[in-house]
Amino acid sequence: MSTITVLGLVLLLLMALVGGKAGIQSFLALILNFGLLFLAMVLVAFQFPALTVTLVVGLLVLALTIFMSSGDDLSSTVAFIASAIVLVGLILVIVPVEHWAMAQGFGPEDSEDLEGLSVLVGVSFTQVAIATAILSTLGAIAEAAMAIAAGLGEILEQHPQVDTKSLLRDGIDVGKQIIGTTFNTLFFGFFGGFLALFIWFTGVHYSFGEILNDKVFVAEILMILFAMVSVILTVPITTWVMARAVAGQRRHQAAVMTKKDDRK
Amino acid sequence: MLVAWVVVIAIGGLLVWVTQHNARWYHEPIVQVTQVQARPGTTVEDDFHNQDVQTKQVLTARVLNGQYAGKTLTLNNVYSRSKAMDQRYRVDSQLFVTLHHHHGDLSGTVKDLKRDGPLVLMLWVVVGLLLLIMQFSGFMAFLSVALNGVLFLLAIFLNGSTQGARVLWIFGSLAIVFAALTLWLVLGTTRQMLITLMTTLGGTALALLIALLVFHFTHEKGMYYEAMEYVTQLPRPLFLAETLLGSLGAVMDESTDIISSLFALKRERPELSAAQVFKSGRQIGSTIMGSLINVLFFIFVADTFPMGILYLRNGNSWGYTFAMNMSMGVVQSLISGIGIVLAVPLASFLASRLMTKKVTL
Fold first, then answer.
1. Is A35 helix (H, G, I), strand (E, B) or coil?
2. Are A104 and B83 an interchain contact pair (Cβ–Cβ within 8 Å)?
3. Do B256 and A181 touch (CB under 8 A)?
4. 3 state DSSP class of B303
5. Which residues have a Cβ under 8 Å from the Cβ of A214 and sit 6 or more positions away?
6. Which residues of chain B have a CB within 8 Å of the CB of A176?
7. Is the ipTM of this complex over 0.85?
8. Regarding the domain delimited by B162-360, which CATH topology (the fold level of the hierarchy) does it fall under?
9. Residue A194: pLDDT above 90?
10. Using a CB-CB distance cutoff of 8 angstroms, which residues of chain A are in contact with residue B244?
11. Whether the predicted pLDDT of B314 surpasses 70
């Protein structure tokens, strides 16, 4: 058996032991997410428009991740709507910045990997770079939105009558608790992947100015910064969606109550 | 509040303005494009019937720095529609060039675009939003990332000076320092911090150990070290160091979440037994572990997107494209996933046994 299969089986076993049915479900979500990511790659390679593919696949990934993990209905729905809003907002940030930075495609550092490959393939790599940046943040957006929604859900459970204004403050407070560790997850996750590149830079003696303007370096750093922006934005947006949802529920309840009163 | 936003936006604008006028800070010659003339494009086709359009641009540009500052020259540039390895320059683009001075004639070739503007802008957007929305906590989050970044740089220089012979030792010890520093910044020197640190290091180390065992028994079948990018030293220890660092943050994130919830729980209900605490820890952990594995998975695998598309367009099969681009990222995600899952029982166990003494006092 291949290493990937065995590692996958070990992970499945551990997730089942620790999380039971929910653990197996999370593992399935992971496999499906991989399938979606691969599908996105194939579709873009078949020259479907990269941005549209990314948006559709992104929404599917968010829905899958959020609804397949355990959570109550209200906080899952809120987390999904909020993360979808963040996804759209993120595209509005990424598109102009990527066009300005022109950090798409490959740099001179990639020339060894590109040997024997044709690079004039007719696929817009600017679009591909935008798609890559969006896809790499999907997990972080979903995680942050779920954490904030779950935190607020708990507060609502304990204080069902909390007013909208203090709910907004509570959301930011929950955000403050998670932002430090979430940033570290992103930092280590990305820097773990960039280790080889950074070692390359010191080995080949690039000057500081050369590194700061290097295509590959800028592309990778922009990816971390986009991820961080999206996580920060997730906090107020999730809180706002939750406040709207709660206000809507209360209005609905109030309407039902008055109807009952009328009947009396 | 409005004033704060205005100040942050004004500082951001100023920083971007500076990056557009800092050519003097660079030794390399920089030019600014003043005029662009495009020639008609030609359609090209490669061996795999991929069609692309190549266009030649004649750029008129003004030198911004160095001994030729203020002089004007013309440059040639070719770009393709896909722009994988080339760029389409516009008026006002600032470019690094190599200048040739020949009998009073100034000519040059374009090296690359100057990109510090978007970099500084995005960095400021992150810092600004952190300070505006999260205030002090945002500042601390930024501080911890910045400190870790400095440590990371130092470790890379250390690795360079040892020719990469001890990469795993360097980044292994760095992981311990990273975890200790980060947790100290968040929690201070408390019992909670110690338990979290033990869980983080234990979970990450166990995951690597399991991975090495699996590598041993499967003879690393289906792992392609040659598929790793930018490798300048022995790939296997480098891969392990990458995986170790990559999973550390997520394992730490999870341990912090579980253990702080358990401490809060014990404070509210001190009568809970160790077994009950363990059970709630497992419950908290199993709700967050899936989404954390997901975070790392997308970071590790989405990065291979452009190269994967290039492989597919070059007539490679899906299987080969996966093996040569995504397989190493998937292995990394799986190892990190194992670490993240193992941290759940580890955190619950350590918290349930070790926190009782202090809290019941």
1. helix
2. yes
3. yes
4. coil
5. A107, A109, A201, A206, B112, B115
6. 134-135, 137-138
7. yes
8. Multidrug efflux transporter AcrB transmembrane fold (1.20.1640)
9. no
10. 192
11. yes
State which amino acid sits at residue A87.
Answer: L
Tell me the pTM: 0.94
CA-to-CA distance for B42 and B19, rounded, in angstroms?
35
Look at residue A72 in the predicted model and tell me its pLDDT. Answer: 76
Beta bridge partners of B44: B52
Q: Is the dihedral of CA B35, B40, B41, B42 positive or negative?
A: negative
Q: For B294, which residue in chain A has the nearest alpha carbon?
A: A139
Query: By C-alpha distance, which of B280, B290, B287 is closest to B250?
Result: B290
Among B84, B118, B249, whose Cβ lies nearest the Cβ of A125?
Answer: B84
pLDDT in tens, B256-311: 999 999 999 988 888 888 999 999 999 999 889 999 999 999 999 998 999 999 99
> Tens digits of per-residue pLDDT, B94-144?
999 999 888 878 889 999 999 999 999 999 999 999 999 998 889 998 999
Tell me if A122 and B82 make a contact (CB, 8 A cut-off): yes
Residue B272 C-alpha, separation from nearest chain A C-alpha, in angstroms: 20
Phi, psi of A92, rounded to the nearest 5 degrees:
-65, -30
Mean pLDDT for chain B overall: 92
Amino acid of residue B322: F
Q: Is B45 helix (H, G, I), strand (E, B) or coil?
A: strand
Instruction: Kindly determine whether residue B252 and residue A184, on different chains, have CB atoms separated by under 8 Å.
Output: yes
Domain boundaries, chain B: 2-114, 162-360
The residue extents of the domains of chain A are 30-263
Is pLDDT above 90 for A206? no
